[in-house]
Design a protein that fits this description.
Blueprint: H1 8-21, H2 28-54, H3 59-81, H4 87-120
Length: about 120
């Protein structure tokens, strides 16, 4: 089992978190509501990646991380719609979130296939 901080998905989520922490010109009220909630959601995903990596029953935890990614995507979309981030930045963040979602989905699918194969033995 790889340590969680060496996983590609962990690194991708960490990079996304760093991007969010670098948000500069955001209105004060939005910064202390929407952006703070966004940061908390991303941190939850990092914790879920750690938990999933530390257990043999990964599927449910990865599913929870995937649900949190839906919230992250929504918050980022709202920031764009509220004109707090540029469409160019929105595009870059959307690519990052899509990549993370695909990695989580593949990890969950791999885990489900592995679980099914070991139960059949």
């Amino acid at each position: 089992m790889a340590t969680y901080d060496n996983l590609r998905v962990y690194k991708a989520v960490y990079d996304l978190m760093m991007e969010v922490f670098r948000f500069g010109n955001v209105q004060r009220d939005i910064k202390f509501t929407l952006v703070e909630d966004l940061k908390k959601e991303i941190i939850k995903i990092i914790v879920l990646i750690y938990r999933a990596n530390a257990t043999t029953e990964k599927s449910e935890i990865i599913g929870e991380a995937r649900e949190n990614m839906v919230v992250v995507k929504l918050y980022i979309r709202m920031l764009c719609d509220l004109k707090q981030i540029s469409p160019k930045r929105f595009g870059a963040l959307s690519e990052q979130t899509e990549s993370i979602s695909k990695q989580l989905s593949a990890w969950q699918k791999y885990n489900s296939n592995s679980s099914s194969a070991s139960q059949n033995d």
